[in-house]
Amino acid sequence: MVMSNAQKRVFSIKIPRAIGYLFTLFILSLGTALFFTYEQANSLETNSQTLSNQLMDKQEELKTLQSKYQTLLTNANQTKQKIDKLVTLQQEMNQLVTDDNQSQKGMGGDSLNIQQLNFSSDEQSEKSEKVEDLQTIQQSISTLVNEYKETVSELKSVQKELARLPSIWPTSAREITSQFGGRSDPFTKSISHHKGLDIAGPYRTEIYATADGRVNEARRNGGYGNFISIKHSSEYTTQYAHLDEIFVEPGEKVKKGDKIGAMGTTGRSTGVHLHYEILVNGEHVNPLPYVLVEH
Ligand SMILES: [Zn+2]
Q1: Ligand 1 centroid vs 46 CA: distance in angstroms?
Q2: CATH 2.70.70.10 corresponds to the domain 175-290
Q3: pLDDT in tens, 41-72
């Protein structure tokens, strides 16, 4: 009886314990399942949020692109208006030109492929009308461009001529000690013709080529001392005398502003100075009016 009772009691205790374990296991499984479901839901929500954000970004991008496209269209229209104005101007200019052939010159130059421009118009006829308009404009532009090219080439040749014209101050020193023309000779005290301009400055002050050209002479030359002669064109030559040092050689090409020597007192000279000469067609002229630009 006791055994049976004891067994019965043990049995009755064992069952609830097993249930307890099972229940705990069930709760744990449920918890885990709920946790994972929650995590999954969370991650799905995050994904969905990301996708939604990406979609919004794409929409923003699309808006930006649309606005850019709109701006481009507006610009194209504005450019067309500007071209129209140019064409009107061109027509007015043509009327001013008496020679008809002149106005025809330069047609069909560099070709802009206007047919390839894509305009947003849905109307095909409107589009082809625009293309025709643009073709007319294109031809006018070619004429204008050619006329501008001529002007630019004229300007370039003027620029080249200017580069070969002695036009800058030949040294960084500024003190004129003897003008061009009649003067009392510092050695003989008699009146003589001074063929250049004397500019005094510190010993070894830099001397510059006053125009583009080619060095004709660079040597010791009697009373001139260390002497440089530069031929700029068939018309112009410049000469620099009494130099302490010569930095160039005969035959060398020089540019306006290049350092060609250092100021000194070589030859027939009473002190450190530059004797600067300009010759036009072989005749000495007063250099002062030629100094248009300070170096
Ligand atoms: Zn002199």
Answers
A1: 91
A2: yes
A3: 777 777 777 777 777 776 776 666 666 656 66
Tokens coding 102: 């002149």
Residues 167, 292 contacting (CB under 8 angstroms) = yes
| Cα of 180 from ligand 1 centre, angstroms | 8
Residues 272/265, Cβ–Cβ less than 8 Å: yes
Determine contact, residues 227/221, Cβ cutoff 8 Å. yes
- Phi then psi for residue 143, to 5 deg, are -60, -50
259-270 tens-digit pLDDT: 999 999 999 999
Q: Separation of 242 CA from ligand 1 center, angstroms?
A: 9
Task: Compute CA distances 72 → 80, 83, 123, 128, 163, whole Å.
Answer: 12, 16, 19, 20, 43
What the block records as the tokens of 293 is 């630009």
Ligand 1 centre to CA of 261 (Å) is 17
* Portion of the chain with pLDDT greater than 90, in percent: 38
Ligand 1 centre from 254 Cα, in Å?
Answer: 23
Interval between CA 256 and ligand 1 midpoint (Å): 22
Q: What is the pTM of this model?
A: 0.53
Q: Map out the domains of the chain as residue ranges.
A: 75-163, 175-290
Ligand 1 being an ion, which residues bring their Cβ within 5 A of it?
Answer: 196, 198, 275
- Distance in Å, CA 225 to ligand 1 centroid: 11
Q: Which range in 84-98, 150-164, 224-238 is most confidently predicted, on average pLDDT?
A: 224-238
196 C-alpha vs ligand 1 centroid, how far in Å? 5
